[in-house]
Amino acid sequence: MPVFFGVEELVQSGEVVDGVIVTSNGPVEALFVASAGTIVSTELSSGGYVEVEPGALAINTVFSGDRFNRGMEEVFGVDSGALIFGGQQIVNSGGVAVGATISAFGSQTVSSGGLATDTTVSSGGVLVLAGGEATGTTVSQDGVEIVSSGVDSSTTVGAGGVETVESGGSANDVTVLAGGTLRLDEGATANGFAVASGGTLVIGSDFQAISGYTLSGYTVSNGVLLDVEIYGNAVGTTVESGGEITVNGGTANDTVIGGGEVEVTSAGTVSGSTVSSGGMLVLSAGTASGTTIGNGGAFVMSGGAASNTTIEKGGAQFISRGTASATTILGGGEQTVGGFGARDLLGSAGLSVSTTIQSGGLQLVDGVASGTIVQSGGEMVVSSGGVTDGASIQSGATLVVLSGGIDGGDPALNEGDSIVMYANPTTVSGTEILLGASTSATLEGGASMVVSSGGVANFTTVDSGAVLSVSSGGEVGSDYFNSFLYGSAVVSSGGELVVGSGATELGSQVAGVEVVAGGTAIQDVIGTGGYELVQSGGTAKSALISGGTLEVASGGILNGVRFEGRNSALILDASASLQGLVVAGFGEGGAPDPIDLKDIAFGTTRRQLSFTEAAGGGSGTLTVTDGLHTASLLMAQYAAAFTASNFVLASDGHGGTMVEFTSATTVAGAGGGGHGHG
């Protein structure tokens, strides 16, 4: 018979005791089972204690209680078939637990030298290996197994179950089914684990560690999730179609994304990734460096920073937010920099910095692109709301700025009153097609900028060998004050500006060539060596000739011109059609200021010159005729008053008549047919 010591009961050797209730407020508070003793269907509840000594056996013990009021069993012998709903079972050295079921508030701890076999853990139950060994465990439905030390073998982690292997722990041949999770922390050992579709593998560290688990050469198969948490490190991972990695504070190096997906969040870091067909790298925070995007691969950024990305043929990078720097776009590759609209807050768009676009590569900019280099055969397109600044468009390359796009500065800063102070200019050696706005671009030798309808180019520099063309609806210079003060375009010697029909140009400084071919040029300055030609249908207004030449062809219109400085010349192919043209500054400083009247024949005896001063002085009308054609120019006087003797006629060498200023009071042969003033 059992021996009782007050509230304690001892089951002796050879005895079998069935159905004992062990609880803190019952007749039996503690039950001890000696070697060769057996207890069956014991009920262990709040505050009760059972000890199964070496050689003893406990069968079908039922543990009840809650989180705060639990019974405890220590196993030094053998316990079989325990139902641990609310108590704690400790399997000590030499003890064996077989077929236990742990759930609710129940727990099983296997100490060093202890063994648990065929345990089932679910619904809030916890199995802890603290130096002991477990084999054949099944963890599911919110069950947890923690291998803090010791060895776990042949565990199956089902839906809702989690197994964590901590530093010093070892797990062998673990199978993770759909919905199950295996976590490996720093210092853990894992051999031969398999994660099925729908299962999750987590690598990281416990909260006290400063380094994490390193996983090498792993393949993430279809439906499998690999979660790389803080201090975790995945090296040489392959992500197959349907597989997924989340890098949440950890590191993933040299990953091959072959149809699956890698998402980088928080402070995660990835480097050396290769994204192939069907694969996707998603960066929402953290960093990505040295990524290669192959044919059919995609790199999507909604935040974070990416550097040294290479986009190969058929690859694509999409940047809605975040910064991508030092990207190289190869032929057939494409980068899209997401936008925000030209007046939204900065930081709400993607930013590309120092991208290089090779032949056949394409960059689409709805956000901000700074310092892009477009090589021969490459193309950059700036859409509405997009901004590019500091770009270099090399020979053979193309920049297209669509309506609403900005070339050469920040849209917020460009709303200010002196945009030239803030623009980061684009350098063009290739071709720029402008339907948006450009500020301070420099067109180098061989370059071409075409300003199409709706396009506006401000403060453009046209170097020798470059051409700036403005077509119908396009503008060069859009602000009267700024353009007049700084010059909307500077056309250097050897450079060319063409203002087409329906186009407008304001305030250019011309040391090269400007052709007004049907458009309108306002307040141009034709400097030393410069030549401006107003063709039929073209109009020049308030032109200033300062050492250069202005020619108005037949059918061209000139509304006001002023001479300034020496070596300035005005050529009128059809002066008779420009009756009342206002000419200011003629002869100032004693300059000859030749005016070539090409339609007034010089070699005729009917040639006459007259000058009639206006009432009140200050201006007068110069009339020159060959008897058939008559030119009538309104001469505005800024210095001494004119008389007819201040004008001398000569042949222009091509049959026309040249009018020049002279300070002489009498000029022989100046008129031929009468001089006079009224």
Largest sheet: 77 strands, mixed
Number of strands: 87
Share in helix: under 10%
Count of DSSP helices?
1
Average residue pLDDT: 91
Shape descriptor reads rod-shaped
Q: Which structural class matches the secondary elements?
A: mainly beta
Give a topology summary.
Blueprint: E1 3-5, E2 8-11, E3 16-18, E4 21-22, E5 30-33, E6 38-40, E7 43-44, E8 49-52, E9 57-59, E10 62-63, E11 72-75, E12 78-80, E13 83-84, E14 88-91, E15 96-98, E16 101-102, E17 107-111, E18 115-117, E19 120-121, E20 126-135, E21 138-139, E22 144-153, E23 156-157, E24 162-165, E25 169-172, E26 175-176, E27 181-184, E28 189-191, E29 194-195, E30 200-203, E31 214-216, E32 219-220, E33 225-229, E34 233-235, E35 238-240, E36 244-248, E37 251-253, E38 256-258, E39 261-265, E40 269-271, E41 274-275, E42 280-283, E43 287-289, E44 292-293, E45 298-307, E46 310-311, E47 316-325, E48 328-329, E49 334-337, E50 350-353, E51 356-357, E52 362-365, E53 368-370, E54 373-374, E55 379-382, E56 387-389, E57 392-393, E58 398-401, E59 406-407, E60 427-428, E61 431-434, E62 437-439, E63 442-443, E64 448-451, E65 456-458, E66 460-462, E67 467-470, E68 475-476, H1 480-486, E69 489-491, E70 496-500, E71 504-506, E72 509-510, E73 513-517, E74 520-522, E75 525-526, E76 531-534, E77 539-545, E78 549-552, E79 557-563, ...
Parallel strand pairs: 2-5, 3-6, 4-7, 5-8, 6-9, 7-10, 8-11, 9-12, 10-13, 11-14, 12-15, 13-16, 14-17, 15-18, 16-19, 17-20, 18-20, 19-21, 20-22, 21-23, 22-24, 22-25, 23-26, 24-27, 25-28, 26-29, 27-30, 30-33, 31-34, 32-35, 33-36, 34-37, 35-38, 36-39, 37-40, 38-41, 39-42, 40-43, 41-44, 42-45, ...
Antiparallel strand pairs: 1-2, 82-87, 83-84, 84-85, 86-87
